[in-house]
Design brief:
By secondary structure, the chain is α+β, with helices and mostly antiparallel strands. 22% of the residues lie in helices and 21% in strands. It is elongated, with a radius of gyration of 16 Å. The protein starts with 5 loop residues before the first helix and ends with a strand.
Length: 76
Amino acid sequence: MIPIDAQHIRQILKEWVRHYNGARPHSSLGPGIPEPMFPKVEPQAKRHEIPENHRVLVTPILAGLHHEYKLERIAA
């Protein structure tokens, strides 16, 4: 990203710090996230499949340079 002015830099850094501290996995925590923003899904027997009644939500970070992913239960 190319910042336009000081306000834009503050906006970029604010979003990056939120992502870095709340959603990005940190290797020192194992596969853990320091401040998870959503509840953890219980482990499944088939780990590489999306659990029934769930879908993947994608949130773009920094205009799509990064993405956050989470599972959401589908309302019945």
